[in-house]
Amino acid sequence: MSAESFEFTGDFLKEAQRNIAKYPQGRQQSAVLTLLFLAQEQRHDQGHYCDEAVMRTISEMLDMPYIRVMEVASFFTQINLEPVGEFHIQLCGTTPCMLRGAEDIKSAIESKLGIHAGQTTPDKKFTLTEVECLGACCNAPMVQINDDYFEDLTPDIMTGLIEKLAKGEAVTPGPQNGRSGSEPEGGPKTLQTGPAPQIRS
Ligand code: FES
Q1: Are 151 and 97 in contact (CB under 8 A)?
Q2: How confident is the model at residue 2 (pLDDT cuts 50, 70, 90)?
């Protein structure tokens, strides 16, 4: 599925140029990560990934060695080096999520989809990737699906989300156990009593 060439087009080209221009002369290489993101977005319907053609184009645009672009692209899991499915499930497996049941969430995904981490379903609908902390540890365990976080998961909830996505039904991002944000389960437990807040005029 590797494309032979890649060029930024339309709004993606404008945004790439705008980002390159943000940096002082000689420092344009600082835009490399943004350009990788933009290229991936432009290829949203073609696997949402950056291959050699993308990285060669970016290396020419930024006048930096191809290998340096490759180093950045391969360091961040946010940059896909292989095509991903319509729904890219990124499962956090770092310690807080692991202690809160990430392994069970992973098993639920694997058994529902019949794939393992790093694989895509034959119909190209779902890809499962295991990643490091996504910064939502207060709501562990969690996954990111495309651009949204789904938190406070159980294996049953995770399976239900996959079923809805497979049927094209809407799903609601955020905590899946009813709490708001990362407040304590059952609602706020502190600062319930005390003097009324002073309102400044
Ligand atoms: S450990 Fe999973 S979000 Fe931080």
Answers
A1: no
A2: low
Ligand 1 centre to CA of 37 (Å) is 22
Residue 190, CA distances (Å) to 100, 108, 181, 186 in order: 24, 35, 16, 12
DSSP-assigned beta bridge partners for residue 174: 150
Residue whose C-alpha is closest to residue 11's, from 47, 42, 51 = 42
28-76 residue pLDDT tens: 999 999 999 999 999 999 999 999 999 999 999 999 999 999 999 999 9
Determine if ligand 1 sits within 6 Å of the CB of residue 105. Answer: no
Ligand 1 close to Cβ of residue 136 (< 6 A): yes
Q: Which atom of ligand 1 is nearest to the CA of 102?
A: 2
Q: Which domains does the chain have, with CATH numbers?
A: 10-75 (1.10.10), 87-175 (3.40.30.10)
- Mapping DSSP to helix (H, G, I), strand (E, B) and coil, where does residue 139 land? helix
- Model's pTM, two decimal places? 0.88
pLDDT in tens, 83-111: 999 999 999 999 999 999 999 999 999 99
